[in-house]
Every structure is written in C-alpha cells, then in structure tokens.
Amino acid sequence: MSGPVDVLAVLRAARDSVPAEQLLDYCAAVAALAELIAADLEYDEAKAEQDDNAKFDETGMYVPRAVFERVEAATARRADALASVGGES
Asked: How many CA atoms lie within 13 A of 66 on its CB side?
C-alpha cells in the first residue's frame, strides 16, 4: 500500500509548472476536479442514506421522498461534474 500524498504539494507543483497564460485554464481544471470529488462524496452519502432507509415489500423498494430526491439531485450533480471533465456516468 502506498503512503499518504500531500495533494496540495502536488497541485502547487503542477501550478508552478504551468505558463502564466495558461494559469486560468489550470485553475478551472482544478475547480472542476474539486466539484467532481464533492459531487462523488455527496452521491456516496445519498446512496448510503437510501440503503439505510430502504423498505422492501412484494412490489419493490421504497424510501422516504426526501431521500429519493436527495439521491436524484446527487446523481444529477455527479453526472454534471463528470461531464465537465469529459467523463460519462
């Protein structure tokens, strides 16, 4: 297993290697990556809440409306974040 990584040091080193005229593009890429990480965490938390609240019967699974809406919003946020970095869900 690898050891801990100083993510900020990696980002700073990358930033320092970018020519000044490309710095805004670099910052936009970092912001998009940060949004993707945040969206992915929110998605994981929403899915865990869904799992914790799910009730099953002979016709399927049910969750409270607020939980369902949270999962839907998290799924959309994650898809948008993935699309912004050229990925797909």
From this structure: 2
Whether this prediction's pTM lies above 0.85 is answered by no
Distances (CA, A) of 67 to 23, 46, 51, 60, 64: 40, 7, 10, 16, 5
Mean pLDDT, residues 34-50:
94
Q: Is 16 exposed, middle or buried (0-12, 13-18, 19+ CB in 10 A)?
A: exposed
Query: Is residue 12, in this structure, part of any structural domain at all?
Result: no
* Residue 84 DSSP SS3: helix
Q: Give residue-wise pLDDT tens across range 66-89.
A: 999 999 999 999 999 988 888 776
Its domain, for residue 37, covers 23-84
Number of domains in the chain: 1
d(CA 86, CA 19): 23
